[in-house]
Structure formats: C-alpha cells, structure tokens
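Quarterly update, task 2.4: calcium ion-bound model.
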Amino acid sequence: MAEPRKIIIDTDPGQDDAAAIMLALASPKELEILGLTTVAGNVPLSLTSRNARIVLELCSRPDVKVFAGAERPVARPLVTAEHVHGKTGLDGPELHEPQMPLQSEHAVDFIIATLMREPPGTVTLCTLGPLTNIALALEKAPQIAGRVQELVMMGGGFFEGGNITPAAEFNLYVDPEAAHAVFRSGMPIVMMPLDVTHKVMTLRRRVEALRAIGNRPALALIAMLNFFERFDVEKYGSDGAPLHDPTVIAYLLKPGLFSGRDCNVEVETQSPLTAGMTVVDWWRVTGRKPNAKVMRDIDAEGFFALLGERLARL
Ligand code: BDR
Ligand code: CA
C-alpha cells in the first residue's frame, strides 16, 4: 500500500468545510493531514480558527495542528457569509468552546516551512476558502510554487455562473487578487467549481443515510447541514443544499468520481460587475495555456456513498 498523501487543508469553516475536514480525518490510510490553516471567509478569522478546532475535537483529533492565517483579503475589505452559515459560521449543533490551542506560527509561515521541508512534489494544498493564505505564501516565497504536488481548490464556476454575484463564486469573490496570483503561479491546480458542487445536493434521503451512522461527528454534521441547507432551499427551491467543500477531499480519495478537462482559467480582478469571475477557456478558443484541471461532472451517488462509508469510521 502506498504511503498516505500529505495534505494541508486551508479552510474557513463553514459547515461544508467541516464535512470536508471530517472526510479527510476519516481517511488516514490515504491522507496524512500535516495541519489545518485558517483564513477569513465565511466568517472572520477568529471564528474560522475556533470552528476548525471545534471540528477536530468533535472527531477526537486535537493532535492535528491549527494555524491561523490571513484576517483579510490581500487588497479588499473582507466579505463574509453569515447569511448562509449563521453567526458562528458553524450554526446548527450546540457548539462547545474548543480546548486545544491555536499554534503560534502564522499559517503562511507554516505553509512555506512545510513545503520547503518536505521533498518537492509531496505536499498537496487543499483550499476550501478564499485563496489569501496561498497568495501571501507565494508572495513571500515564490519558490514554493514548484514544490507543491497539487493544489485542489473549491472555487469558481463557469457554466453554472456564480453564487454570491451572478458571475462569481464566493471563495473567488472574496479575494480575486489572491486567486489571480494562484492561477498565475504555475502550481498544478485542480478546480472544483459550482458546476460540480451544485450536483452534490444534500437530498433528504442522503442526509437520513448519514444520520443512521449515529456517531458524534455524523450527528453534529447533520445538525450543521440542517441549518446550512435552509438558505439554498429557499434560494433554489431545491431538496437540500450543495455540499461544496468535501468534493476536494473526495477527489483525492476517488478521482474516478470526477470528470473535467485541462483549461486556461483567468480571474477577473478589475470589473466591479464581475469581480472574482473565473473565465474558463473550456472550448479552447484562446491560445492561452491550460493552467488548471477544471472539473465539470461528478458521480453524486458515489460521492455520498464515500462520505457515508468514511464518516462511519470516525
Ligand atoms: C464556498 O463558499 C463557502 O460559503 C463554502 O464553504 C464553500 O467553500 C461555496 O461557494
Ligand atoms: Ca469553505
């Protein structure tokens, strides 16, 4: 059996971030989590840093280190999404105060130090929020770009449009300048856009199957999802909400669930109307070089089967 793949999860929890973190924690044979780095996004940094630790403790994994990162986007004021995630960012279950400490090292320094210490091409960055920490790390130590095995991000949207504006997906909208730097960096990028995540809906029957697992993390997650979905149910009139962030982890575990193609992706930073839009050259109508593997489809039943099978191990 191959060694587990080393990952850093950069995150702004967020109920769907929590699901992603749980999926990774439940998969130690395949994934070794070197640390969680937090970023301001769904809620301010103090809350995302708190929530990351709450999720780890819910899964009895206070040994995984949490590093707090950027408090605000590189060039803009912070935009948050309490209207989706609630006041805490993790509304739903009753939340305890985390006991485990935050690390004193800044997330950006942790990312750089880890990439410089580990052999080149052996660390994967999983980004579930705005790309601020990664852009700051690239600015401080551009040589890390060549050492990343892969950066797998939840972000962007193309055929599906945006979710925070008609043109932009939330993670890219919050920090378009950071995203622009990441897409220009030359790192191997895999992008999980809304085109994929809008296909993994928390349908009632799927949530009930997760509830039947009955362990503490699964029950907490169900309470989170029940809160989280009310916004999308109202917005889209759908049965449930898109479970965005765990698609990143599912890709590392079972890439065969996904299909997409190598494309050039540019991020709009200038226009107020379309800031944060990911312009994907899906049809190769420009001569621009592909810089990302852009996913478009997912086997949704296979994804939820994987999630259920793994959560039952926690
Ligand atoms: C993304 O934005 C956040 O609200 C979610 O956690 C996810 O990362 C979806 O647009
Ligand atoms: Ca997120």
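Highlight for this quarter: Residues 12, 14, 17, 42, 128-129, 245 surround calcium ion (ligand 2) (CB under 6 Å).
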